[in-house]
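Morning!

This is the sequence you dropped in the shared folder:
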Amino acid sequence: MKYRESQNELEAIAVEAVRDLLRRLPAAGVTPVAELRRTDHGPQADALIRVHYGGAVRLLVIEVKAHGAPRFVRSAVYELESYVARISQSPAHAAEQVVPMLACPYLSPESRAICRDHDVAYLDLEGNVRLVFDGYIERSVPTKPKSETRTLRSVFTPKASAILRALLREPDRPWLVTDLAASAHASLGHVSNVCKALLEREWVARRPDGIVLTQPDALIQTWRENYRRPGGDRFDAYTHLHGRQFDDLARKALNARPGSPRAVYALASAVQWIAPFTRDATRSFYTDAAGARVLREKLDVRPASTDPNVVVHAIADESIFDDAIEPLPGLFCTCPIVTYLDLWCGNDREREAAAHLARQTLPWIA
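The structure's back. Tokens below.
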């Protein structure tokens, strides 16, 4: 659903949604709700609704925001706390329990957690709601608006992923935009846009010495749920080479450096060199087009429609080669972050390998 309404229209829709929620409470316990006139000086909440329920009178102080990202939600929560403090001091409301409530088109799980931490009720137009009275109403829905999905996709595009990996490689480092752009081989404008999206979700913070990643675990957990393995051409093959002979020839073919055919171990084959878990008879590689040709020639492979023991993925995202690691001289693998994400999106055994890799090399992942 797209929300193109003006702020006034959005407020009307959101307040009506709150009223509809209140009507669902047992009819005997709720009198018709009425919006109060707001005559106090200073900034005002978007709506005040008085509710009689369970023998008590409650005043809902409602703030409506067009954006529900954590950064905006935290600001709205502070505004609500200010409104509640001022209203609670008014003799006209002395007998009422004042309840702050936030309404938005969509509130992410992180934004809802901020509201719960501050005892703020919430409702979004996707159907997520929490309202605590004598009992409570709480409901979460799995759906997201298309706008939220598009925003997440823009954060996790192949071009943006190089920026995210740079941040995750050094999670405690403060980054100047110019340094981050150089590390990720990205433009200053693109880095600024990605950092803005991360700031809205409170995954990074802006300090005097630069941008700092503050929630690496939240970032990668969201990324892995939205991750897609690199696109490109896949070649399934069979070779009679095995063991040490295979690895020695593969190492001679591998190269991650710009200007040469590029090929690196990937997926379960990468984790065996980074943090050995279990043996996998199938060797997997990420390559560019030239690297695929070199690898196929060196390993003397033949196409295999069934039971391949070599899988070559010629990928388009060359940034994956830029931050490949070299666990042994001349042996290149996808970096731990790419390897983790690739495996997490696989079958149960691959996900176990991803968890093992995280324990060994990415201990900040919850």
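Headline: The first helix runs from residue 7 to 23.

More detail when I'm at my desk.
O.
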